[in-house]
Amino acid sequence: MRHKFVVADAPWRWFLKGAGCRAITMPWRSIYVLSYYRDDEEPRRHELVHIEQIERLGAVRFSALYLFYLVRYGYRLNPLEKEAYGDLSATMRSPSRP
To answer: Which residue among 20, 51, 65, 78 is least crowded, i.e. fewest CB within 10 A of its CB?
Structure first.
């Protein structure tokens, strides 16, 4: 399934600024990015990993896991974020993960 890359307007712009984020991926495969990062490849690559995770896990499972990991580990130690940031030791594909 294809994804949509959208320059964030209200309310997404307010949410992103308030959360200190450049972009966010939603389970319906839309990536919202602040206008001044629209040409920045780093957040685009990061969010495209989340699109791949959604496709691999399914939208419902991705959402549930993301929230569970966020509560349990916080943002930076969330295994889905670590994978998106390129920490290969934390990928969901690791055979050591259940």
So the answer is: 20
